[in-house]
Amino acid sequence: MAYVIGVDVGGTFTDAVLDDDAGTVLAAKSPSTPPDYSRGVLDVLGLLAEQLGKSLPEMLAETHHIAHGTTSSLNALVMGNVPPVGFLTTKGHRDSIFIMNVEGRYLGRSPHELQNVLGQAKDHTLLPKRHALEVTERMDRDGNVVVRLDEDEARAAIRALLDDGVRAIAVSLLWSFRNPAHEHRLRELVAEADPDVFVALSSEVSPRIREFARNATTIMSTQIGPGLRDYLTTLEDTLRENRLSGPLLVMQSNGGAVAAKEAPATAISTVGSVLTGGVVGSVALGRQLGHRNIISTDVGGTTFLAGLVVDGEPVRDTTTVINHHPINVPTLRVDAIGSGGGAIAWLDAGGNLRIGPRSAQAVPGPACYGNGGTEPTNTDANLVLGILPERGLLGGRKPLSLELARQAIETQIAKPLGLSVEEAAAAIYTVQNAQTGDLLRKTVVEAGHDPRGFVLYAFGGAGPAHCAGYAAEVGVGEVVVPLGPVASAFSAYGLASSDIALAAELSDPTTVPFDPARAEQNFAVLEKQVREGLDRQGVKFDTVELHREIDMRYTMQLAEVTAPVVSGPLDAAAIEEAATAFEERYAALYGKDAGFREAGIQAITFRVRGIGILPFSPELPTIPAADSPDPAEARAGHRPVCLDAAAGYADTPVYDYRKLRAGHELAGPAIVEVPTTTVVVPGGTTGTVDSLGNLIIRRTSARSAS
Amino acid sequence: MSMPIFGSETFASRPVDPEELRRSLPSTMDVHSVSQEQVDALDPLTYEVVRHRLWSVTDEMGEALKRMSGSPIVTDANDFDFAISDELGQEVQVGLYNTMLVGAVDLAIYWTLRNRAANPGIAEGDMFLTNDPWVGGGLHQNDVMVYQPVFHDGKLFAWTSAICHEPDLGGVGLGSFSPAAEDVFSESLPTPPVKVVRDFELQRDVADVWVRRSRVPMLVALDLRAKVGANNVGRERLHALIEQYGADTVKAVMKRMMADAETRLRDKLTSLPDGSWSATGYQDQSHEGDRGLHKITVTTTKTGDHLTFDFTGTDPQSGVVNCTYAGMRGGVMLALLPILAGDIPWSAGGLMRCFDLITEEGTLNNATYPAAVGRGPIGPAWLTGNLVAECLSQMLDRDLELGKNVQATCCGTWDTAVIAGLDERAEQPAPFLNIIMEPMSGGYGARPHADGIDTGGLFCIPMGRIPDVEMTEFLYPVLALWRREVPDSGGPGRHRGGVGASIAITPHGTSIPMGLVLASNGKAVSQNGGLAGGHPGNTGLDVLARQSRVSELLASGRMPSELSEISDSLEPAQNYASSYLAPGEVFVMTWQGGGGYGDPLTRDPRAVARDLREQKITADAARSVYGVVVESGTVDEAATAGERERQRSARRERSSLLGAPSGRKADLAAVKRLDDNLVEVAVGDGAAVACRHCAEVLGDGEDVALAVYEGPATDAGPQIIANAADYVDAPVVFRQYCCPSCWTAFYSAVVPAGHPAPPLGRQTPARAA
Q1: Across the interface, do A92 and B480 touch by the CB < 8 Å criterion?
Q2: What pLDDT, in 10s, does the model give residues B407-441?
Q3: Lowest mean pLDDT across A222-236, A498-512, B5-19
Q4: Which of A100, A129, A209 minimises the CB distance to B474?
Q5: How many CB pairs under 8 A join A and B?
Q6: Boundaries of each Hydantoinase A/oxoprolinase domain copy (chain A) (predicted)?
Q7: Nearest to B543 by CA among B585, B489, B495
Q8: Predicted TM-score of the model (pTM)
């Protein structure tokens, strides 16, 4: 008897999912408790224990491990709520982080903001210049020392930082990933001055070519490292006091976890953890359902996150953007493509209907929340259309005002456009679905795939009302909406199902074909790092998988694409095989003949990903089967609902998800009410309840105007 | 200048009346269009869904182009663009990259419809290629456009296009920059539209003719393929869109997008007072060996909902500092899009209906064949844009709300240097050619409410970027001694211009000198002027350290950070030169920041202290330019007040009066804003002009009392780092106009001595138009 627990600490709620590996899956939700998020974690764990009928220590004593994802580090970075850090870099190149390759002005901005050049700024610099100090030293691209490190100058710089109250120092020198000697020496010099100061080296945090992203990555990691260390220490101590004996793991952006005590050293690798939980959950559920290609859509009140699973593996990226900086962190690709249920509908100066990107946020929220919001949102339109129940959400515990929703739509949209309130609401619903389709398509196409070969998963409070609509826009034929216990804590479910994942990488730019021994040596170094890292986790694995990869590019082209490399001894054929894999992948991403072989191929970054498979694979439990496909027994009533502007309102059956059984078939149009969400089964589709309690929506007739 | 070429006028494309163009097409050509009734009948839902889809099609074209291109100019610097146009070439949706190209794309399509429809014909499966700046598509020969007609049911439905800057297309100079060119025949040959794809097949013969001219044929071949690929994406997605919504609906949306943009710009113009505003700027030197100043001047007149840009008075074409009509129009768009249309969708076909251009043939920004135009976009077109921006800023500065889009001039040119040589770092030495991209990190101009963006980039390529030093050193045999922001390079002002930057490189990994071609300007006169009394940003400066100690310094464990450490014999590089850079030598480029806004003596002293702390300015400038005394990081309020008073007195002593102040004060509570410094007050039945700072009534609008000073250019501040006499013969001065009562600066510029006087309140709305 042992439990696995996933805990997802979000900005508003802390979710937890427990799996006993024997068919029981429980979920709990509790408010997050900033600034000390560990209290919320204990609260939610307490709720799980309560459901088990045990005390917290009893539950924790039987817990194999806890996998924990937190948004607190990311929040700290985004809000600028970080302690002062120092930055040591190569003389002549301090301003890399202030010039930001110019792109710091526009990276991460929406198309709308991009066009408004005069509204932009570069006021999100990482640190004041007095904390960015140069040291005399220089390597060249081959790792040769051009200028030796001036140690006296370095000592003075370190002293100046410490005197100014800095307790954490980021070190990032040019070409340090080719020769880290000067960075290593600088760490020794800091330790000589004060051994308690937190130090991060770019050659360890991000040994990758392109100094701006490496500098920014190292600095951000240093900004959150000490805070993460303090938080995890407190949390782990408390859990130990409550008899947790198994490991506390922290989720990383790459979709795998790492031991809590290992996390702070490369803190930046944890920042995307809450974003990726949903994708990891989709992989786990997909394994159970036999889906290999999945578009995962997690739609909340203020965000719309889209991730991809291809051939059973999440689509990965090697960089992300945080606070307008390019950050080197192996990550699952998750695109924030919209503003969720709170996206505001508005008329631009030309009188055209627009939706988002501005959101009503949590406060004031949609107009129908009655918290003072006067701008109409998707949620307001859905209420007017009858998709959301007039009595409110959470079974009526969260009341909604139809009157306020109508008023907002009428004043802001319907009257100016000369439409009825209902017509305006239907227009908002349709435009929202179509635009989400455009953005989803961008995500899938840019990853080199055709959306028509995918199944779409929808979770989060605001996804299921729209998913069948936007799935149709991108040509997806099958939609899965989880309805069971984990539906509202899907990200935490993903955490519970994760394994340990570590990656080590090293840029060593060279031209193909190159000496296989060079690659073998690089991989040997990286594999040793990963194996040692896995050993330090303090967890027993079923198996350990090591994956070798090289990021390659055509000599004259910018885009780097990751190619797998076989394990074992490498010969010329193995290198050629990797190059071929690169070319195939490149062609899939950018089109046949897009690559320019004649110009040659370069290997840029070598990487080893290690996965320690845990002896657990949580699965959703089955639900009872229905006697017949007719879902009449689950029918809770009916109401007029408008899902199609042309067809208008139609009397539509409403189902209670708790009464749905495996095998029930819901002919669209239909509505399924779940306390935390509402599912729309549009006309021309059928929703089938599967054995795990998921609703599978498939097209049954030619596509109707959505 | 060589003789005119008879018959070349055939290639000069101009905006056309779309209906006239439609009528001129051969009867064999079926063209798809929709009626105004169909446009009006669109429901808001369909309009928005299809509009967004068209955006997504354009976006996908841009991604395809960027990913397939091999040129760092595209992949690292984003110097490219793409568009979807209607059946007649009017631009419906454009990319956000090089905004100058927007002014040239439609010209090439108009020309193609007029000159290719009958022979060789325009058919489904065709793509055309052009790099003829007279025809359009690009602004100089390096801008190459590949574009295709998209057909539906046998009717010409739309056009898609993709353009990027190619690193080299032949001609005398590296990178096709020919500093001594007498005419276009020394440059890359302009190619009028040729059918490079026929029946969906790339034409091998045409492609070979095209690629053969380049010093980097592989890159050019790759970019050709990238542009074909981007157009393919555009065609396929347009067809899918038509299939889903019907051709008429899609076309109606395209028409309405342009009409919507047009209406919104016209509404905005209507809400502004009528008037006319002028600006004049210069390019120093026109080619290798020249020491002249070459003037572009524009008068912008706003009447009702329409703008006229009149360039009459611009100097005749000269040397290599010319651009074609397409360049002038592109320059106008570089200013108009962000300043007037930042909040309006860039359906450029509609926006361009809101202005006319008046220009004389054979001038710097409307050059006649065979003028050399290789520097078109980075010289004259850019200057055109900056001057138009200056006019629009004066127009908008009358209004506090619209003034949010006012901006002093940004970095005024691309400091151009091309290096080429042999990379000997690998076993097999390899040739290389590279345009140094770092000068793309220029400073932005200050705004009425905010400082300019430091190293914000180039205003004409909003999404430009510069490569990492490590990528530059990985690809080319150089070592960057520094790449850094330059303190004081932002124009001083109440709001400071954004700083520019500097790079120093030395050969590393090559034993033979590399070729070095220089082609830029902005050393002798300011191209990054201030507004409302703000000073200009820095002058550019390129320096060659020939007898350098750099190798010894590095070997002895020292990394130089100043030119004086490197060499005792420094050579300011001329604007146009074919030179070299040998091992052991150092080449340093410093490019421009942005201009300032408002009198620097009125800058918040705490902002000055912050700038000093963040090394955006030097201690010297804090005191001498801003009049702020900072002691160990803190403002000394009393000393600052004293210093500022002293500087105002110095202004009084050094200036001459143009008319006497009235001695009367206006009631500032009941005035109308003219700009940041001047207000209009009612006096009896008429109006008078008063200082917004001290309320002194300065005159009646015909005659405004001012004080003027002219002195050495360096009086503008330490940002004047180049000596004008090194480049041009004409005297260059710092000229400042002040309020003759409170001595606040209204205008501060580094200009040739004969520069025309600014209007400064002598032009009230009542008098204008």
Answers
A1: yes
A2: 999 999 999 999 999 999 988 898 998 889 999 99
A3: A498-512
A4: A209
A5: 236
A6: 214-501
A7: B585
A8: 0.91
